[in-house]
């Protein structure tokens, strides 16, 4: 009898969720992960996040993937099987999930343990932070970076129900693993979609991300300075997937953490293994076995997996059956029930993902935390930063099905055809692989699709502007907004000193050179209204006095320059008054084909009132003319509410919001590299005196370039400190008298020296 390793994988991860619950900081055991009832008391929900550089398939993984259950051990990040450095929170990928009820207070202590001095901040994507803009977590806009070896506490009310996520908002850290799901539930009686599902389980939250085979900073530098490959090599589903193939017979050793791409010499590996295996068996294995023995039924299941594994490896020589992969994610359902699934995209590159589940249609009910009139589709596309909730009716045969995430654009056939699968497993299904191929092409699900890439409203597709919100109409949908801004988005042909040098390797010179493959040796600049965002030296929200009003710029203040031919960079700001209804007409001019920019607004949700693809490319001037001629139709009833939206390439998306939340709010493309290149601006809502004040002790930072160091010596360091009154008056005991005398002597010495 032979058993495929893939089936072994499947058996092993069937108990995955049980194993996860044994992990000390997993959401399953957190007191805030509870049913949200009408009479639930709000809780204070505390989390400790430790941020570190880490690695995939570390020693914590033991013999993963050869022993597949080892892949499920705490601190084992198996990812797609490719070895690379990562950044993690609590050595998990994705980081810890947060599941709370509306009204809870979320408290997260973030400890930065990144060696090398890199600062961090965490953004709570989808949480509007009304009253607490300084908790929005945007480095150098709402706070200073959290320095290495320091702890910063985020504390805010979970007031915005829905499927959200948290992620680093500094550098490329989000690319390297610093993200996790964040779900705020409310009582079913307050959920407009509750009639459509039976179960809303935390374990049905699916985090998607495209994934590189190297650190984000390395890929960014390779792509932008050397025009080398910086495109995703994989997609992960809840941090799991299969890409790299391992073979016990041909790899260097039989132990997973030392597969063939290791750089250690073989004898050194064997030495290490001999020593570490002894230790492993005496300490950690014992702990793991103890953990597994907690419930005898689980142990029996584990034992049978081990037995099958041994039988399998004993029975075969070098064949396909010896190949091993890191495990897929797995989601369990029971026949006859309707389940709410929550899908989140922590998209990194321009890699929209087509999501589908074989043999199941999806009833789409919500996006970015806001419900809409349900629609039945075969698949949907999710862009970086978006979230979609759907109901899956488990009405098929009891078996296993592929859940598919198929990458498009920079993940598509013109690049590496990147896709990933996970298992949808019916309870009591036989342990048999789905008969369908898990390959890239099979993920191209036909039939009605929601939110297509670069396609306007048309047959076979539903664009988000066609959805009917279940949130009642409001002031935002009045006929004419108070203010309207046109924003041109594109990759522009300007000489950007970050990537070109007019003297040594100018844009013109590089345009005529061709490097690797088809890529031309020049880099275009993704901009908003032909301006690249310059990060200010201090966060304007929390250091008003440092960043004065004329520090900011916009299209008008830059009018003395021709930013269509010359590189323009400044701290781009749109300023609006509190209470105004704002319309943003986002125009993707589309000079670079098949590009796409999902735009995310902090601090406010917006209504999507129009979306159209006009041509392969267009101009903001043309859209202005169309608009002036009344050729752009807006949906001013029940327009869907979102916080992240795509703009068709060569087309427009029009969004509306009411500026009710005073603060400095980032509005940016959610593609990590585009944002790093400055495809962002800040929307100032209200005057600074109208913004909620941060605590007095809130950390500060900024430039320090004094004319003369002497002039800057702070008075308190010069003068003799006052004798503390507690010391001066406490003479009741010998101990306090001695202490007081010591203090006086110290102060006298201090005065003499100063
Ligand atoms: Cu972009």
UniProtKB/TrEMBL annotation:
GO terms for biological process: iron ion transport. PROSITE patterns: MULTICOPPER_OXIDASE2. Keywords: Copper, Metal-binding, Oxidoreductase, Signal. GO terms for molecular function: copper ion binding; oxidoreductase activity. SUPFAM superfamilies: Cupredoxins. Residues 78-187, 204-428, 539-687 form the Plastocyanin-like domain. One of its GO terms (cellular component) is plasma membrane. Residues 1-20 form the signal peptide. InterPro entries: Cu-oxidase-like_N (IPR011707), Cu-oxidase_2nd (IPR001117), Cu-oxidase_C (IPR011706), Cu-oxidase_fam (IPR045087), Cu_oxidase_Cu_BS (IPR002355), Cupredoxin (IPR008972). PANTHER family: FI03373P-RELATED (PTHR11709:SF394), MULTI-COPPER OXIDASE (PTHR11709). Belongs to the multicopper oxidase family. This is Uncharacterized protein. It comes from Mytilus galloprovincialis (Mediterranean mussel).
């Amino acid at each position: 009898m032979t058993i495929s390793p893939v089936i072994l994988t499947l058996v092993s991860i069937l108990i995955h969720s049980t194993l996860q619950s044994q992990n000390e900081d997993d959401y399953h055991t957190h007191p805030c992960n509870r049913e949200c009832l009408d009479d639930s008391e709000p809780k204070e929900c505390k989390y400790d996040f430790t941020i570190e550089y880490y690695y995939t398939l570390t020693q914590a993984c033991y013999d993963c993937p050869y022993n597949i259950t080892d892949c499920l051990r705490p601190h084992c990040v198996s990812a797609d099987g490719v070895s690379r450095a990562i950044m993690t929170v609590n050595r998990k990928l994705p980081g810890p999930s947060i599941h709370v009820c509306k009204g809870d207070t979320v408290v997260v202590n973030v400890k930065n343990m990144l060696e090398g001095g890199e600062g961090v901040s965490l953004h709570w994507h989808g949480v509007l932070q009304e009253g607490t803009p300084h908790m929005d977590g945007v480095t150098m806009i709402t706070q200073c970076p959290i320095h290495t070896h320091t702890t910063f506490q985020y504390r805010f009310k979970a007031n915005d129900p829905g499927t959200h996520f948290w992620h680093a908002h500094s550098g490329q850290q989000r690319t390297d693993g610093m993200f996790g799901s964040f779900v705020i539930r409310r009582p079913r009686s307050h959920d407009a979609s509750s009639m459509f599902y039976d179960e809303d389980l935390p374990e049905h939250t699916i985090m998607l991300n495209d994934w590189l085979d190297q650190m984000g900073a390395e890929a960014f530098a390779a792509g932008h300075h050397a025009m080398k490959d910086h495109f995703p090599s994989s997609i992960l589903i809840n941090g799991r997937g299969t890409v790299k193939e391992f073979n016990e017979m041909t790899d260097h050793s039989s132990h997973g953490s030392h597969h063939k791409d290791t750089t250690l010499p073989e004898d050194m590996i064997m030495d290490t293994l001999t020593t570490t295996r002894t230790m492993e068996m005496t300490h950690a294995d014992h702990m793991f076995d103890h953990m597994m023995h907690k419930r005898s039924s689980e142990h029996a299941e584990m034992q049978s997996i081990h037995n099958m594994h041994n039988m399998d490896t004993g029975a075969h020589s070098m064949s396909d059956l010896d190949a091993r992969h890191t495990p897929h994610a797995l989601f369990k359902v029971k026949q006859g029930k309707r389940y709410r699934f929550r899908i989140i995209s922590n998209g990194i590159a321009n890699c929209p993902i087509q999501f589908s589940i074989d043999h199941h249609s999806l009833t789409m009910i919500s996006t970015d935390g806001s419900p809409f009139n349900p629609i039945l589709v075969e698949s949907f596309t999710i862009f970086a930063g978006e979230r979609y909730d759907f109901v899956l009716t488990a009405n098929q045969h009891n078996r296993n099905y592929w859940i598919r995430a198929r990458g498009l654009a920079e993940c598509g056939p013109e690049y590496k055809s990147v896709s990933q699968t996970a298992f949808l497993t019916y309870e009591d299904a036989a342990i048999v692989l789905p008969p369908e191929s898990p390959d890239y092409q099979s993920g191209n699900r036909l039939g009605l699709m929601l939110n297509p890439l670069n396609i306007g409203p048309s047959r076979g597709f539903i664009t988000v502007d066609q959805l009917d919100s279940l949130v009642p109409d409001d002031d935002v949908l009045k006929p004419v907004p108070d203010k309207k801004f046109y924003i041109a988005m594109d990759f522009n042909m300007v000489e950007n000193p970050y990537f070109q040098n007019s003297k040594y390797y100018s844009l013109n010179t590089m345009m005529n050179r061709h490097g690797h493959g088809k890529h031309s040796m020049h880099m275009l600049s993704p901009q908003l209204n032909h301006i690249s965002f310059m990060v200010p030296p201090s966060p304007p929200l929390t250091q008003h006095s440092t960043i004065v009003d004329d520090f900011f710029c916009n299209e008008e203040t830059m009018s003395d320059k021709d930013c269509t031919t010359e590189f323009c960079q400044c701290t781009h700001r749109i300023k609006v008054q509190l209470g105004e209804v704002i319309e943003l007409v986002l125009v993707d001019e589309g000079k670079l084909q098949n590009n796409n920019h999902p735009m995310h607004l902090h601090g406010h949700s917006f209504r999507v009132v129009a979306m159209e693809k006009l041509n392969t490319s267009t101009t903001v001037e043309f859209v202005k003319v169309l608009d002036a001629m009344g050729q752009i139709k807006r949906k001013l009833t029940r327009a869907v509410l979102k916080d992240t939206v795509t703009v068709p390439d060569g087309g427009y998306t029009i969004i509306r919001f009411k500026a009710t939340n005073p603060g400095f709010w980032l509005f940016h493309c959610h593609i990590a590299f585009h944002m790093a290149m400055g495809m962002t601006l800040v929307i100032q809502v209200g005057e600074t005196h109208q913004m909620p004040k941060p605590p007095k002790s809130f950390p500060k930072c900024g430039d320090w370039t004094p004319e003369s160091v002497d002039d800057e010596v702070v008075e308190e360091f010069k003068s003799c400190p006052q004798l503390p009154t507690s010391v001066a008056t406490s003479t009741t005991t010998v101990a306090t008298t001695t202490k007081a005398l010591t203090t006086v002597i110290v102060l006298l010495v201090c005065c003499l020296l100063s």
